[in-house]
Amino acid sequence: MQKKTISQRLERVAAFVPDGAKLLDVGSDHAYLPIYLVQQGRIEKALAGEVVEGPFQSAQKNVSEHRLTELIEVRLANGLAAFEVEDQIDTIVIAGMGGRLISEILENGRAKLRAISRLILQPNNREDELRSWLVSNGFRLLAEDVLEEAGKFYEILVAEAGQQTLTEQEKRFGPFLLEQQSPVFQLRWQKELKKLEGALAHIPEKNELERSAMSQKIESIKEVLHASK
Ligand code: SAM
């Protein structure tokens, strides 16, 4: 059976999965990530959870076509309901969803997170809300990554149990990403800056509050970009 190739985004997510992890991939519409990791020999087994029937079936079909049904179990379940203590899951990936939905999935399954040693989260937006949820719920960030693929920027947040406080700036931009100031990080925020400056130009002068909120966002990006020079 051919080896699965996955998007650069999922490859970068996969890089944070510890070798030998007992993995649950939540929202595993095609089960691409578990298939890739098992084929690479990085993990022995995995659970793939999916809440919607159609994607659940396509995940099952893919696992079966790759002859991995003994090693990857696909479960139709909402969020963290996809695993039980007996599954001994220690690593959870939740990728390709909004940051608010990821926070809700974590919140709804909070009691189950005690047994988890690593969360690997790839929000498509609202990264600040997700960082806030993590630090308010006994997690600390271990690492972060940012990448650009097909014109879109994606952040990856890796967390483990622990205490951490983050400033508002760190919640928005990411403590590790701020520190690293990678070229992709800079490009992402330069583009956002241009977008917001364009939006500001279209807000009528009389809408002072709206203009002021937008100006503050713009200033906070400029601060971060200038800090790197
Ligand atoms: N994780 C894959 C990735 O990163 O490429 C798939 C991302 S896809 C855009 C999001 C998937 O998450 C959809 O198939 C959706 O049905 C599923 N999903 C959304 N909410 C969920 C939940 N509460 N529990 C399980 N799956 C969920």
Automatic annotation (TrEMBL):
InterPro entries: SAM-dependent_MTases_sf, TrmK. The gene is trmK. This is tRNA (Adenine(22)-N(1))-methyltransferase. GO terms for molecular function: tRNA (adenine(22)-N1)-methyltransferase activity. Its EC number is 2.1.1.217. SUPFAM superfamilies: S-adenosyl-L-methionine-dependent methyltransferases (SSF53335). It comes from the Bacteria. Keywords: Methyltransferase, Transferase. PANTHER family: TRNA (ADENINE(22)-N(1))-METHYLTRANSFERASE (PTHR38451:SF1). One of its GO terms (biological process) is methylation.
